[in-house]
Amino acid sequence: MKKGFTLMELLVYMAIVGIIVVVAGQAFSNSTKFRVRTQNMLRATQEAENVATLFKADVSQMGAKTSMESGAAAHGADYGLKFYTVCPTSTNADDCISNQIYRDPDNSTLENRDSSSFILENVSTGIDKLTFFRTRYDGSGHYLGVEKVEWFVEGKKLYRRCEVIVKKSTYTVSSTDPCYKNNGALEKVEIADGVEKFHIVAASPSENVASVQVFPPCTSTPCTEKFKLIPRTGEDGFVTFHTVENSGGTEVSLSQFFSNFSNTTNGGELLNEADWKQNQAIAIKYETLSGDATWNERCNSYGKIALETNQEYEISFEITAPAKKDKSLNFVPGEDHMSVGFRSAGTGDFLKKDGKILVDDFMFFPPMNADGSGTRSMRFTIASNVTDACLAFTFASFSPLVSQGNITIKNLKLKKIASSNYSFETTFDASATANFKEKKNVKALKLELQIARGGKNNKKGETGEIVMVVPIPSNGPRD
């Protein structure tokens, strides 16, 4: 007897198969949609990361304003190069970097002076526009001009646009340059589309304007630039030399350095090492001094500095150009010694903890030709709090004639650097006029970028989002 399916059994089987097919089809469809959504999300995230990387590389250079120019010095090989720095008033790009690197540093209202190098505008919810300024360099790092760069959103597209607003008369912007004006108009370059969010947040300034300058002590606005340098004497190894205060105390000329070279012994040779001496000058604030006192006492009364753990500091000063026949032009790098650093008011030694030096001296060279003047700046942090530091310049002459030279130091400053730390916990409105004075101490920007992919019928699709902090160490300050 043959057996088969009854009609009822066949209907039940077909129903089961149908259910399986529907479930499997739905699962396949969901899997496909999930795969597409995942691909869109990964694509959007990758594009957001790529854009953020470009943004960081571009924006981190904002405010760049110092250039060491070409042209070797007559003495000292490559050590006597010409420095370009920002002009305080002139806009002659052939003389210096334009004052336009700053936004509004000379506003007649002190509180509205803006020495930052950026403008941040809110266009709509989650969409901002950033404009910033920086120095343009050639391949050797020499100054060419000042760039204005814009990042902005139109529709859902993110663009970058740039312009050379001031340049050296000898420099021509190439027609292939992104900042070239085509028939007098600037072209914008599309960076990304599908941009849902382009939000930029300025970090809260980590230092108030009034507290940035540590030395000379800032007791007024603007901060004083007057200082004194007093010779350290009365101890083995240290001898006096000549100091003259010029320009009302904003600069000090040093001369009559001790020579560790004898011109009379055997036709000229170094002194015995046991007879070597050095000149050291301690920086104090500008005061009328009376009576006799040791350098330690002068430092404790007028120059003692407290340094904080892990706070970044900057020592800066300018050295004026020497006369063409000045004997300082005979300085030999690697043999003669000029440095700036700190000494303990209590011990006279380097600042130390557990026998280890906390801050080494910073070597610097004098100008080695008539064009070699410029600002010297050195940055450092310290691993332990110090309360009795004295800022000291040390000189040791070993070449036959350099001790007969004259060195002039001006605009000496020790400052806290706001870039050592920054916070986004407190909202800082960089567009508010009331905050313009503090904008120069903004040392980081936070980018919040969101890009969508795969959207249809006015739906934005899957989004990739990235949050990136961009340090801007060269933004401000203007002295």
Give an account of the 3D structure.
The chain has 479 residues and is mainly beta. It folds into two domains: 67-207 and 421-471, no CATH class; 213-416, Galactose-binding domain-like (Jelly Rolls), CATH 2.60.120.260. Helix content is 13%, strand content 35%. It has helices at residues 7-59, 295-303, and strands at 67-68, 83-84, 118-124, 127-137, 143-154, 157-167, 181-182, 185-186, 189-192, 195-204, 213-215, 227-231, 242-246, 251-255, 261-262, 269-270, 279-285, 305-307, 313-319, 337-344, 352-353, 356-357, 362-363, 374-380, 386-396, 407-416, 423-428, 444-453, 462-471. Strands 11, 13, 14, 19, 24 and 26 form a six-stranded antiparallel beta sheet that branches. Strands 12, 17, 18, 20, 23 and 25 form a six-stranded antiparallel beta sheet that branches. Strand 13 (242-246) and strand 14 (251-255) form a beta hairpin. The model is unreliable at 72-80 (pLDDT under 50).
**Range of strand content:** 35-45%
Main β-sheet: number of strands, strand sense, barrel status?
A: 6 strands, antiparallel
- Gap from first CA to last CA: 110 Å
Mean pLDDT: 84
> What number of structural domains do the residues give?
2
Report the top-level CATH class of the largest domain.
Answer: Mainly Beta
Q: Going by CATH, what is the homologous superfamily of the largest domain?
A: Galactose-binding domain-like
- Number of DSSP strand runs: 29
- Determine Rg (CA atoms, Å): 32 Å
- CATH-derived topology of the largest domain: Jelly Rolls
Shape: elongated
Work out the helix count. Answer: 2
Q: Which parts are unreliable, with pLDDT below 50 for 5 consecutive residues or more?
A: 72-80
Structural class: mainly beta
Helix content: 10-25%
Per CATH, which architecture of the largest domain?
Sandwich
